[in-house]
Amino acid sequence: MAGFDDISKKAQEFLKDGKVQDALKSEKAEGVSDNILDAVAKAADKATGGKHSEAIANAKEQADKKIGNQ
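Above: the chain sequence. Below: its structure as C-alpha cells.
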C-alpha cells in the first residue's frame, strides 16, 4: 500500500500547483466537464427508460455546480 500512498501524495501536491488550478478552472475544462456530465446523464436517462429524467437532470445540475466553474 506504500506505493499507492506515495502516488496519492504526489497527486495531491500536483493538484495544489497554481498552474494546474488555473487549467482546471479554464473554459476548456468547463467544456470537458459539461460534455462528460451530459453523456452520463443521457446514459442514465436511457438506462432508466426516461422514468427518472427530472432526478437525473437535478443530479447533473448539482454535480456541475460542484465541479464546474460557472
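The chain has a mean pLDDT of 85.
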